[in-house]
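User: As part of a screening pipeline, I want to sanity-check one entry by hand. Below is the sequence and the SMILES for pyridoxal-5'-phosphate. Please return the complex as structure tokens so I can compare it with the automated output.
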Amino acid sequence: MTSKLGLKHVQAIAPYVGGRPISDVAREYGLDESKIVKLASNENPLGMPKSAQEAMLKASSDLGRYPDSNGFELKKVLSERLGVPTDWITLGNGSNDILELSARAVAQLGDDIIFSRHAFAVYPLASQAVGARAVEVAPTDIYGHDLSAMLDAIVASGDKAKLVFVANPNNPTGSYLTAKEIEDFLVAVPPHVVVVLDEAYNEYLTPEQRYDAIAWVKRFPNVILSRSFSKAYGLAGLRIGYGVAQPALTDLLNRIRQPFNVNSLAQAAAIAAFQDFEFLQQGYELNRAGFAQLTQAFDELGLTYLSSAGNFVLVKVGDDDDAGAQMNLSLLKRGIIVRPVGNYGLPQWLRISIGLPEENAIFINALREILSAAK
Ligand SMILES: *Cc1c(COP(=O)(O)O)cnc(C)c1O
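Assistant: Here is the complex for your manual check:
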């Protein structure tokens, strides 16, 4: 379906393919919605926190009014915890919004935006939408970001290089960069190139893996930190995230965002969720246990998987080029939704979001049956 209308670089965009909604799969395969297990979109298996639900109920009485365009209350809470002034914070309609605003603020037709192959699907989308060339850099042999190769690509792009996306942990590979690796990279990146450090899964890092990204924002005027309320905070359906950068960059993002890009319910829920330490801790522990449960099963089944620092695991389900698609179809027929990652250049793999113990068990049993039936 090509149209004569519109920009060439927009026509060239391959639309984002998300995890299939439960209702959609139920309709197609004639299944009972309540029996479907969705492990496809890295959502929090606990759902949304009760605290956020209550805050939303309260806020719902005022929905006849526009939201607070500047997100005063939420920025205040974020500012206090993060240790930056409120004019360093940009609220986004999901952190996706922050990624797009970053691209729109600094790059245009003819510029280069650099990121790793097998990184988040929104990077090419955000790059192509502004007409920039998406420069994909081959990953390391364990599917991590090859920061030194990314640096080479930036240097090769010269003045055209405007933006580089770094995901830590990365989706869909789950790969993780150490503080030293990131810091060395930030020191080496030319100051005219903006670095978006995408930390959508930051809250799932172990205490040993954690680092002080805010210190980098304070030190480097070209760094934008991107964080999400969709994953660990359980608010994916509300669409809210935030960016942290020095005031000059933050001001740019602010100029091009929609004036009311974050709705009132999302703001209220985020304030509550951000302070719900119990919920965060519960989700963290559930995630660690679920990772152990899934990977133990993969070990038993002799399947290769990648070590993940996020709330999902990438597992190789066969050697054929359609192995991921085939396994995905077999799982769908049994009411289990996972994420095929052929569009990420990984057609032999599936990405499994870590669910509740019983959801993981249903998936593991189905996987075992499908694999043994194929023998
Ligand atoms: C999920 C995800 C996001 C975006 O999530 P939002 O729902 O838009 O906040 C950003 N980056 C990565 C790497 C992700 O996996």
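Points to compare against the pipeline: Residues 40 and 226 are 22 Å apart (CA to CA). The chain has two domains: 19-47+278-374, 53-274.
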